[in-house]
Specification:
Layout lengths: L19 H30 L3 H19 L6 H12 L3 H38 L3 H13 L3 H16 L4 H24 L4 H24 L9 H35 L1 H37 L3 H28 L5 H4 L3 H6 L1 H9 L1 H16 L3 H26 L2 H26 L11
């Protein structure tokens, strides 16, 4: 047994459920990994927010661009987990780790290409999103530095992917906390102490990403697997990745559009949207910790040819997600008064926050179920369905409302109404798919 690894097995007559202790044993370390980056971004937002509305708006636009560049490649984590978990469930751990080697090669190559492209396009993209002016200029200055962290972000995704697949969730937590912890201390030092302002925030971001990626490189180096690239495996990963990339593009079209409309509304609106959106991202990933556990366990169950257990896990994690999401909604309803002031003292920003806040609170139970079922279907490798359902919800729910908000000056209320429609449509499609059982395809490789 490897450190942090929880072996999956099924015995004759064993219950289809999974002990809560084992689910939490995978979910809690995953929660730390998932929460570390958005928690760091919340610290970053709080530090930059006290520089004023323009730097905060620049961070909002810059951060959303960086997120779009990196998160289009989430298949490096989620797709790798799906493939590695099936192999691990079938008792083929070496092959599961080898998936991580090939995903890391993809991360390096694609990351370097994106750095070059990003440097060339930073200015035009920032001005497209925010319009000409101070906010766009601030975003460009932040982006030109932060883009150098993209290869390290992608390597960390790949590392998390294969380690989750073999049910080793503790080491990734240590790696990510090491990078983000050091950077959280460094950020205010560079922003205020060194007088670098917004650029200091970008440097601290790159430092965090470099530290974490270095630790994931080391984890692969000590495994007894070949480290040379294998084009056939990478092509198979890209086949699964294609659907996940298209799904990610639908997400990012929504959130880029939302930030664009907020930026064209007012400086106060884009600052408020940045704060509530970062809290939304943070809680989304907190809720996703149960989904990560489900992804690992469902993938392993299907790899071990046990579709009955996989279905039982789907029911369990749905219930957990609903309870967890409802609890978070109650908590952040109670924090509606004091919490926004932690992130900014700007009166215009604080006045806009309530227009988004109550949508954010009310959506938490829905999000708990949606993210849990995402994890189930991702663990099953049901990427084609997730692609189609997400694109449909974006095209019918989110995007029309966001752009109508720009046309009719509905502001943050219109933007967050669009997000609500998006989440409800996803909920309906995921519940229907899960009940159908068509996702539960057994075998070490999904066919």
């Amino acid at each position: 047994m490897v450190r942090g690894e929880t072996h999956f097995s099924t015995l004759p007559g064993e219950s289809v459920g999974q002990p809560l202790r084992q689910v939490l044993g995978l979910a809690v370390p995953a929660l730390g990994v998932l929460a570390a980056e958005p928690l760091y971004l919340l610290v970053d937002t709080a530090v930059v927010g006290h520089l004023g509305a323009v730097p905060l708006g620049g961070l909002s636009v810059g951060a959303i661009v960086l997120a779009q560049v990196s998160t289009q490649l989430t298949f490096l984590s989620y797709g790798t987990t799906a493939r590695a978990a099936r192999l691990h469930g079938a008792g083929r751990r070496t092959e599961a780790v080898a998936e991580g080697v090939q995903a890391t090669w993809l991360a390096i190559v694609v990351g370097l290409v994106l750095v070059a492209a990003g440097q060339a396009l930073a200015g035009p993209v920032a001005r497209l999103l925010a319009g000409p002016g101070e906010v766009a200029d601030a975003a460009v200055s932040w982006l030109r530095i932060a883009l150098f962290g993209i290869p390290f972000i992608l390597v960390t995704m790949a590392g998390n992917g294969w380690m989750r697949g073999v049910q080793d969730t503790r080491r990734p937590l240590r790696y990510v906390l090491a990078g983000n912890g050091i950077s959280a201390v460094l950020c205010p030092v560079l922003v205020y102490g060194a007088g670098w302002g917004l650029e200091g925030s970008a440097v601290a971001n790159v430092v965090a990403q470099l530290i974490a990626a270095s630790l994931f490189f080391r984890a692969l180096a000590v495994e007894k697997v070949p480290l040379r690239p294998r084009p056939a495996t990478m092509r198979a990963q890209l086949t699964l990745g294609r659907d996940l990339v298209l799904r990610s593009l639908a997400f990012q079209a929504c959130f880029v559009s939302a930030t664009t409309v907020a930026a064209h509304t007012s400086v106060g609106a884009v600052g408020a949207h940045q704060i509530v959106l970062q809290l939304w991202t943070f809680l989304s990933l907190v809720l996703d910790s149960l989904a990560i556990a489900a992804q690992q366990l469902v993938g392993a169950a299907l790899g071990a040819n046990d579709d009955r257990r996989a279905r039982g896990l789907a029911r369990q994690v749905t219930g957990y997600g609903l309870v967890f999401g409802a609890a978070l909604g109650v908590l952040f309803a109670a924090l509606s008064g004091p919490l926004p002031g932690v992130f900014t003292s700007d009166g215009a920003v604080l006045a806009e926050i309530p227009h988004a806040w109550w949508f954010f609170v009310a959506l938490q139970p829905v999000a708990g179920v949606v993210f849990a079922l995402d994890g189930v279907l991702l663990g099953a490798g049901d990427a084609a369905f997730l692609r189609t359902a997400t694109i449909g919800a974006a095209a019918v729910g989110f995007l029309p409302m966001v752009w109508l908000s720009l046309a009719f000056d509905w502001g943050l209320v219109g933007i967050w109404t669009g997000l609500t429609a998006f989440m409800l449509l996803r909920l309906a499609s995921l519940l229907g798919r899960t009940r159908s059982g068509r996702w539960a395809v057994v075998g070490a490789v999904r066919v």
